[in-house]
């Protein structure tokens, strides 16, 4: 009976490891992607930037205080798949009174105009030999809605 239990334990461990690593395709080529985001000439901090490729899984990052970002594929590998991507940039945080984080408790309205998120017009090409940063210069938010003011 102990052999059966250890076999079940090994199977459960294998399933957990596969689930933790994600369901990405084996051998997927990733290209490191970094850059910066500004809104009305100022660095946009704490925004989520998501690259949705035409083929493959999404990559996502969060901007730092200086507006810089780097993408992570499926939450664990650096980069994005090569090809054309639609880009979504957002600062919205839904209020969750049960959260430990004060920002998540109160939430935050969207600071980025919808043409860069819910109605995005942003598209980029990630190339195999990507060396240059992919920067986004956003315009349109009213000054009273700018982060950090």
Describe the protein's topology.
Blueprint: H1 2-21, E1 34-39, E2 42-43, E3 48-53, E4 59-62, E5 68-70, E6 72-73, E7 77-78, E8 83-90, H2 102-106, E9 122-126, E10 136-138
Parallel strand pairs: 1-10
Antiparallel strand pairs: 1-2, 1-5, 3-4, 3-8, 4-6, 6-7, 8-9
Care to give the gist of this entry?
Helices cover 17% and strands 28% of the residues. With 149 residues, it is α+β, with helices and mostly antiparallel strands. Strand 1 (34-39) and strand 2 (42-43) form a beta hairpin.
Describe the structure.
With 149 residues, the chain is α+β, with helices and mostly antiparallel strands. The chain has a single domain (26-145), classed as Carboxypeptidase-like, regulatory domain (Immunoglobulin-like, Sandwich), CATH 2.60.40.1120. The chain is built from 2 helices and 10 strands, in the order αββββββββαββ. Strands 7-6-4-3-8-9 form a 6-stranded antiparallel beta sheet, with no helix packed on it. β3 and β4 (59-62) form a beta hairpin. The radius of gyration is 19 Å and the shape is globular. It comes from Planctomicrobium piriforme. This is Carboxypeptidase regulatory-like domain-containing protein.
